[in-house]
Structures are given as C-alpha cells and as structure tokens.
Design brief:
alpha/beta, Rossmann fold, six-stranded parallel sheet, five-stranded parallel sheet, 17% strand, hydrolase, EC 3.6.4.13, DEAD/DEAH_box_helicase_dom, hydrolase activity
C-alpha cells in the first residue's frame, strides 16, 4: 500500500535535504523511527523504492513530493507533524503554488490537527500571506528578530573590524587565515575579485575554492561545496547570494574581505556561523580606501552587536565627507 508518514519535513534544496537526513539519522539511532528521503536528484523510481509502510518520517522537496502523490505511492492523511525548513527559500524558489496545493488539495490534516513548525531567515510578505494556511493563528510564535540590524546581534559570534592598508590587504587576509582553525568563508563583492582572491590565497599555500554566480550553475559546484564542507579546501571565497539556501554546517569564521553593502547583506553573511550553539567569528576588513559610507555601516553593525568599535574607525569617518548608508 501507499506510504503514510506521520511526520513530513519539506525542504527547498537537496543540500537542505542532506542536512535534514543527517539530523534524522542521529535522532533515530536506537529508536523505531524509520525515515525516507525524496528529492529531484534521485530518479522517481529510487524515491518510490525508499518508501515503505513502516516509514514514519519523510524528508522531501515539494516537486518530488507531488510526483509521489500523483503516482499514488504516498498519502499525507496521517501527517501529525509538519516542518518547513527555510520556508522563505521555498517561496523564493517558486514553490508557493506547491505549498498551497499541499495545504488544500491532497488530504494533509488541517493546522488544528497537526503540529507545524517553520524556519526562515526573513519573514517575507509572501510568507506572512501563507502562514494562515500553515499555522493555527493562536499559536504563532516568532523566535527570531526581523530587522537586519537586530539580526546582527549574535552573542556567540565575535564580531570585529580589522584595518588593512589597501596595498597589503591580501597579506592581512593571509595572516588571518594562518591564525584561523576550521572552515572559513571569505566574502567579496564581484566575480572577478572572487577568482583573483582564490588564486592569491592558493599562492599563499592554502587550499581554497571559489564560488560565484556564474560558477554556481556549473557541474563543479557540488564538488566545490563538498571539498569545503569536508575540509579538503577549508577556505571558500564567494559572492553574496551565491550560497543562499545552501546549508553549510560547522563554518567557524566569516571574513568580509569587501565590506558589506548593507546591514541585510551583513546579516546574511553572519548567518553562516555561530549556529547550533557553536561559537564563531565575523571579521570585516576596512582599509584606507574604504568609503566613509562603508566605515559608517561597519561602525553601526559593531555597535548593534555589542562589539568594540576601534578608534581608528572613527578616524576614517571623521576626516572624510559622508554620503548615505543603505540599511
């Protein structure tokens, strides 16, 4: 007969699916919990074979979930726990119609007959519009702050501004990398800078990968991410947005080689470290070539996070005319 899980975890990408699978494996050890995984990278036949009448937890991407429902291999009338991982990403990737269909047309129990939880980086207007279909209105709990500046307050993450003369910025970065342990993400603002800095870091003797918007869709993307996560290339140079929706566990240090253009971008960079109760670092390089807008933004981020604001940063700000800050 069809598989009838009692718990369903919906994820936007296969990277999220892999992370959820690792967590399920750890939590189910020594228990009677039986889990299955269904996502687009595997064939539909493989997904069907992974299901059984004993499956209690299903981890799936929306499109593959609908495929299984259409085949009659899956029924959702027994779901008592529904978890949406990275719900804002699910909507950003165009799965809003999938979610509406799942909530209304495939027999999943209504909110008052199940427990529902969702995680998100930002509570977008699209997500707000969908929550009445997902959650009981009297049981909506927001567990994270919304404004970008508030999101920068991360007690487990040491946040610091580092001065680097424009001519010796790469040398300063190399010295920071020598003193760091664990996985390190280095953020830059352009594709060209991403590739140049990867070359420079490798010249200093570090194993480093690079990932930007144009590389993100090529076949070596998974290999680059895997080498980073596994520690074979523990430094990854990347541009903002490239790693969005990619789960990267155990990142210890974030280095903003180029200052973030806004508090929102900084908050997204910051989200990759200090997770799951672990400590982390977020280092921002500021040089004599940095604009006063960049220096002002870095100062406001440090103040909001409760971190020390160095006196030299005030010096950069006070002796040059200011423009505007994008928050």
């Amino acid at each position: 007969g069809a598989c009838r899980p009692c718990a369903l975890v919906l994820v936007p990408t296969r990277e999220h699916a892999a992370t959820a699978l690792r967590e399920a494996a750890g939590l189910s050890e020594g228990s009677s919990l039986r889990y299955a995984l269904a996502f687009g990278a595997q064939s539909i036949e493989e997904s069907v074979r992974g299901l059984s009448s004993e499956t209690t937890l299903l981890i799936a991407t929306p499109t593959r979930l609908l495929d299984l429902l259409d085949r009659g291999s899956l029924k959702l009338d027994g779901v008592r726990s529904l978890i949406l991982v990275a719900a804002d990403a699910l909507l950003d990737l165009g799965f809003d119609s999938h979610l509406r269909y799942l909530m209304e047309d495939v027999g999943i129990p209504p909110p008052n007959e199940r427990q529902t939880a969702l995680t998100c980086v930002t509570m977008t207007s699209a997500l707000k519009a969908l929550t009445p279909r997902l959650l009981r209105s009297s049981h909506v709990t927001v567990t994270g702050p919304l404004p970008a500046l508030v999101a920068c307050h991360r007690p487990l993450v040491m946040q610091q501004a580092i001065f680097a003369d424009a001519r010796s910025k790469q040398q300063v970065l190399a010295e920071l990398l020598r003193n760091e342990q664990g996985l390190t993400l280095v953020f830059v603002n352009t594709r060209r800078q991403c590739e140049m800095l990867q070359f420079s870091i490798k010249e200093e003797g570090f194993e480093a990968g690079a990932l930007h918007g144009e590389r993100a869709k090529t076949k070596d993307r998974d290999a680059t991410i895997s080498a980073f996560v596994n520690g074979k290339a523990p430094v990854l140079v990347t541009t903002d947005g490239t790693l969005r929706f990619v789960d990267l566990p155990n990142v210890h240090t974030i280095i903003s080689y180029d200052a973030p253009p806004s508090a929102g971008v900084y908050a997204e960079r910051l989200s990759y470290t200090g997770c799951g109760g672990h400590t982390g670092k977020a280092l921002t390089l500021v040089s004599d070539a940095s604009s006063v807008d960049e220096a002002l933004l870095v100062k406001s981020l440090l103040i909001k996070s409760g971190s020390e604001c160095p006196r030299w940063l005030d010096g950069l700000i006070n002796f040059r005319p200011a423009g505007s800050i994008i928050l």
